[in-house]
Amino acid sequence: MSSSEQPVPFSTVLRTASSEEHAAAETSSFMAHLLGGRLGVEAYAELSGQLWFVYRALEGRAAALAGDPVVGPLIDPALMRTAALERDLAHLLGPGWRAGLTPLPATAAYAARLEELAEQWPGGYLAHHYTRYLGDLSGGQIIRGAAERTWGFERRGAGVEFYVFAEVANPAAYKREYREKLDAAGLAMDEVERRRVVEECKRAFTLNGALFADLGSRYPLSA
Ligand code: HEM
Hints:
Blueprint: H1 10-17, H2 19-26, H3 29-35, H4 41-59, H5 62-65, H6 82-93, H7 105-120, H8 122-137, H9 139-151, H10 171-187, H11 191-218
Helix pairs in contact: 1-11, 2-11, 4-6, 4-7, 7-8, 7-11, 8-11
The chain binds protoporphyrin IX containing FE.
């Protein structure tokens, strides 16, 4: 890079580096069947239940990380999904939802990684924060639409609240600002750390892919 060239913004680096992994997640058979309206509502409920373990691990230490110089600027109560997931699960599975939930092996591995990173490595945590919340604000909206159509949930209502960011007034603007914060975080890292974060981002997608694979084998086509 000559001195006149700007470095590639870190948000672009992350998006580009994970684009193949993103395509694989989108076309996983579980997601394809879900988007195609070919799964029963119990498969959707199970996805929500597995995500509860993921978000509990992701958000359990979020408040403690709010003051961290690397990831702190990205932490925002408006993003938190655990409470919305709990409302969805009560709607989908009834008040006893918690007793019936067990993490699948891929979920347990994903949650363990998140807990480890939240304790030990803010840069790695940032990679997962980006992968989940920007995904939920983007493709998550497509999943919500499919769920509403397929199983008749009220639009943006009970059952799909996980995908509704009620406190984010303008998702497109929010994503722009989020990317600016990612860029600033990247500028504060050295090249070695940036590479490690990119690798962790790919790992985040792989962990999501493994969860879809576990779900896919539990829910082959119902019709
Ligand atoms: C069927 C599943 C999915 C669909 C249809 C989908 C669709 C999309 C679309 C259309 C965008 C672009 C939105 C924009 O530029 O504003 C996007 C972005 C994104 N998606 Fe997905 N997605 C899916 C699954 C996933 C999964 C499983 C993850 C990871 C857990 C994920 C993570 C992301 C991320 C991080 C972005 C932001 C990319 C960036 O601009 O930096 N997506 N998705």
